Amino acid sequence: MKVNTRSLLWIYAVVVPLCALLIFPIYWLFNTAISAPDQLRQLPPSFWPDAPRWEVFATVLRERDIVRWLGNSTLVALGSVALSMSVSVLAGYSLSRFRVRGAGALGMFILTAKMLPATLLVIPLFGIFRTFDLIGSLWSVILAHATLIIPFSTWMLKGYFDTIPRELEQAAMVDGCSPIGAMVRVVLPVATPGLAATALYGFVLSWSDYAYARTFLTSAQDNWTANLGLTTMKGDYYTNWGDISAAAILITLPIVVIYLFLERYLVGGLTAGAEK
Amino acid sequence: MFDLARPSRRHWLGYLLLAPAVLLVAALIVYPLFVSADLSFQNVGIARLDQPRKAFTTNNYAHLFSSPEFWMAAWVTLKLVVVVTGCCFVLGLGTALLVNQKFRGRSVARLLVALPWAVPEVVATVIFVWLFDSSAGLVNWLLIKVGLVDQMINWLSSTSGAFAAVTTTMVWKGYPFVSIMALAGLQSIPDDFYAAAKVDGASAWQRLLYITLPSLKPVIGVTLVLVMLWVFRDFSIIYVLTGGGPLKATQTLAIMTYEQAFGFFKMGYASAVGIVTLVICVLASMAMMRRAPDRF
Amino acid sequence: MARIHINHVRKSFGHVQVLNDFDLEIEDGEFVVLVGPSGCGKSTMLKILAGLEPASAGTIHIGERDVTDLAPGDRDIAMVFQNYALYPHLTVAQNMGFGLKMRGMSRSDIARRVEVASQTLGIEHLLERRPRELSGGQRQRVALGRAIVREPQAFLMDEPLSNLDAKLRVHMRAEISALHQRLGVTTVYVTHDQIEAMTMANRIVIMRDGSIQQIADPDTMFSRPKNLFVAGFIGSPGMNFMRAPLRIEAGTVMLDLFSQKVSLLIAPAAVSHLAGQEVIVGLRPEHLGAASENTTNVQFETRTRLVESLGGDKYVFVDVPPANRMLREAAQTPAITANTAQRVTTGAEEQRRGDSIIARLINPGRLAAGATIRLEFDPRHLHVFDPHSELTIA
Fold first, then answer.
1. Residue A174 in contact with partner chain B when CB distance is under 8 A
2. Within this chain, do residues A223 and A193 fall inside the same structural domain, yes or no?
3. Do A131 and B181 touch (CB under 8 A)?
4. Lower CB density within 10 Å: C or N end of chain A?
5. Could you give the CA distance from residue A182 to residue A63 in angstroms, rounded to a whole number?
């Protein structure tokens, strides 16, 4: 839509303050992180600290197990994404290409799975994992996160595969590939953007989980994920807001970086799946 | 070895490819669901599968439907769903409409507007707990400065304050999703529609009302359901922010399920609450889907 | 290069029968075109030939091998697709060499074959490009190249020219025909365009609703169509159709056409069951000419409705006497069902021909719409169709 200058001014008049307002909490987090604890207790709140404590990040990294937390979150995310993707790439491809009896039922079920409250599933999973002695192990969260990711990734991947013409596999089969060979050599390379977007979305889903991490890992401090670790820094009576903000920033950074670089793909991934 | 490349056998491949997903989903979702249902009919404290099952009883459900705590949680959930979804919609749709205009810096605006989506819920909670801090939080200071209130509000200790804090946090986290979906929907509306409308003499407001919004209906429908489901199910934000308090003022059904299971260790009862929550979710979604069947 | 035997192939999807008893023998080196309207089953048959769809019944032999249940890669065939189906992530050279690589050919051999094929098609300068950088015509050539390098026993082509613009299509038609002349590979070509069929085929297989209507070389199909559908499908603009009552007088078969009695060279015995009924008469626009002194031709006077001028040729739409029109507003005579009349006269072009026919006149000078004109035709060019079975009588 073409916009004339007067409308342009109106737009800027709204957009700039609006963006500022919406991003404000993130800025405030940063501001809080680098402020000295005494300054934080004072009113009026300062919008920029008098003596920025840039070393807070190093301090927090040293005093808290943040590196371990980040490492655990990464391991868990990589594990659950790998597990989910390997299963849903095949399933998404099958749903896209084949008229499978019961595909409708699977579709309906996946839809239901997206409605499932984690708080419901966590109870039986707790029972199951307890029986297999997995409580406290990272495997419990990897499997639990897979339940979060698979419904979305299958749906998204089916959508992506639908956009790839079947003639490509047909040409590959005429050229001498087996059906699986055609999928691996031709369809998957062409679907790489979709695969990447789906994997990244799964990564974000896993990284953001708190419910499963808290339930399964609290007892094993070495295995705490980032979210879990962060909440332990919030005390019931006293919280070092500067430190916890710095920790929060460190934990958010990987996801925000992914988001900034791959926003286009992520958004495409969300909507491609959703448009069905 | 079966040669799946043969035309007559190729459709087996479809089943073969589907098998791993089906197995995994069966093991991790379907089976636990059955276990959950099973638990809800037992008087179980802590769930463990290798012990003999306890007696079948419907006490959990009976207790649940007659307990005021359950109905309170249902009411809180309903309130939260309505308020948060409404706000997310207004904010999400508004930002999408704005960012859809052509102006310099548009891609930056788009990036910023959707940024809260990338922030983990726990981090968002930390931010807002501090913002709503009763003694040194920014919100209190602003409200006093502007003159809306005359003293510090103890947000997290007052029932309505806590609700407001939870709502704000959820809206901040939730609107980007609506924004992203709406923007995609907006961008798929052909420019020709607007051109034809302009030729017909429609004003900008009329174009919005008669072209933009109707074209967005399918996307809005899907997004509406997804956001409502998200609020329904959310755990992280509420649990970390208020734990469901004070006095259960922010305890949704999801929180209640968790509390009963891992706070009071009454997993049988908790499963019953969870199952009821799930049923409500499914019924509500089906009702919504009926109104927009083509999108599903 | 090989013969292809398709024996009694049937195909159904669930309860829907898509192919009925398809039977065809293709000679070594022949260029066979499967043509027909959308949904007639031609693409399905090609896919079954390729091994991309299983047949519900019947067998297929390529060369002397029974390939009915062989994977596409094992049939020694190459295929060209309507949408080219080039691998987007590979270069042109890699696209062309893909099939050979799958078969374990050495890199140098592959390079050599790709080189030769690209020269044949004039695409050597494109070998390192990716498909998205190429134009439609170039992509089509790469698709052809991919098929050629395989040196298969047969080429299968699925509407390869449908996505090209008109001018390019004409050009590529000639190129494919020239290629076939040069390489002599058995080719099965599917299209909905009867012009492609007529210009390229050694033999045409015309299909409708899953059944073969006729198998013949182009000239035979043009001059001796087996039924109403074939007659109407082949030729552009299509054949004119009219109704005429058939009578047998004094041992001669006569039609009431253009208010005259036109005698036909048909044995009365062949049409005795139709005496007194209306039959469907077909006459191609090319067989209508301006009236001359040749008195053996039937001449008639009529009014022009519309003149479409192509410069040298003119398509003249002229009135048909009400008695001979295909479509009637009043009650239909039972002999020709409303269905038949409808089917013959539906379609954008045929809409106008419910009550008019087209004559193709070459260099007739100036003609005005609404003017009276005298036309003639040789009665031997008339095609007569049984109104019930729609088969050709003459």
1. no
2. yes
3. no
4. N
5. 52
| Sequence-ordered list of residues with C-beta below 8 angstroms from that of B192, at least 6 positions apart, any chain | none
- B164 burial type by CB count under 10 A (0-12 exposed, 13-18 middle, 19+ buried): middle
Both tokens of C310, joined, read 């192509």
pLDDT in tens, C305-322: 888 888 888 888 888 888
| Closest CA–CA distance from residue B5 to any residue of chain C (Å) | 5
3-state SS assignment for residue C299: strand
What pTM was estimated for this model as a whole? 0.83
The pLDDT assigned to A99 comes to 78
57-86 of B, contacting A, C-beta below 8 A: none
A158 within a domain of the structure (yes/no):
yes
- In tens, the pLDDT along A82-124 reads 999 999 999 999 988 887 777 677 777 777 777 788 888 899 9
Facing residue for B126 by CB, picked from A41, A103, A248: A248
Residue in the block written with tokens 């080429």? C155
Please list the pLDDT of chain A residue by residue as tens digits (276 residues). Answer: 455 677 778 788 888 888 888 888 888 888 888 887 777 777 777 788 777 778 888 888 888 888 889 999 999 999 999 999 999 999 999 988 887 777 677 777 777 777 788 888 899 999 889 888 888 889 999 999 999 999 889 988 988 898 899 999 999 999 988 888 999 999 999 998 889 888 988 998 899 899 999 999 988 888 899 888 888 888 777 778 888 888 899 889 888 888 877 766 666 655 554 443
- Here the contacts of A185-191 (C-beta below 8 Å, separation 24 or greater) are A186/C87, A187/A93, A187/A161, A188/A89, A189/C89, A190/A164, A190/C87, A190/C88, A190/C89, A191/A157, A191/A160, A191/A161, A191/A164
Neighbouring residues of C90: CB distance < 8 A, sequence distance ≥ 6: C98, C130
Domain residue spans of chain B: 60-295
Given CB atoms, is C88 within the 8 Å cutoff of chain A?
yes
Q: How far is CA C362 from CA B5, C286, C291, C381, in A?
A: 56, 9, 13, 18
Spatial separation of the C-alpha atoms in residues B213 and B63, rounded to whole Å: 45
Tokens of A176: 């001498």
pLDDT at A274 (0 to 100): 46
**pLDDT value at position A78?**
95
Q: Do the domain assignments include residue A59?
A: no
For the record, the structure tokens of B225 come out as 């359901």
| Contacts with C166 (C-beta within 8 Å, 6 or more apart), sequence order | none
What was the ipTM of the complex prediction?
A: 0.84
Looking at the structure, do residues A82 and A152 belong to the same domain, yes or no? yes
Residue among C77, C86, C87 minimizing CB distance to A174? C77
CB-CB under 8 Å, A172 with C87 = yes
Task: Return the DSSP state at C122.
Answer: T
Please check whether residues A245 and A122 belong to one and the same domain.
yes
Q: Which domains are delineated in chain C?
A: 4-233 (3.40.50.300), 240-385 (2.40.50.140)
CA distance B226 to B285: 9
For residue range C2-40, list pLDDT tens digits in order.
Answer: 899 999 999 998 889 999 999 999 999 999 999 999 889
Mean pLDDT of chain A: 84
Cβ distance A178 to C73 less than 8 Å, yes or no, reads yes
Instruction: Give yes or no for A261 touching B (CB within 8 A).
Output: no
Region C35-47: what's the mean pLDDT?
92
User: What would the DSSP string read from start to end of A36-65?
Assistant: -HHHHHSSSPPSS-SS--TTHHHHHHHHS-
Structural domain contains residue A137: yes
Q: Closest chain B residue to A255 measured between Cα atoms?
A: B118
Determine the 3-state secondary structure of C289 from DSSP: strand
Count of domains in chain A? 2
Cβ C62 vs Cβ C154: under 8 Å: yes
CATH topology of domain B60-295: MetI-like fold (1.10.3720)
Measured CA to CA, the distance from residue B215 to residue B184 in angstroms comes to 12
In a domain, A101, yes or no: yes
Instruction: Give the residue numbers spanning the domain of A127.
Output: 64-275
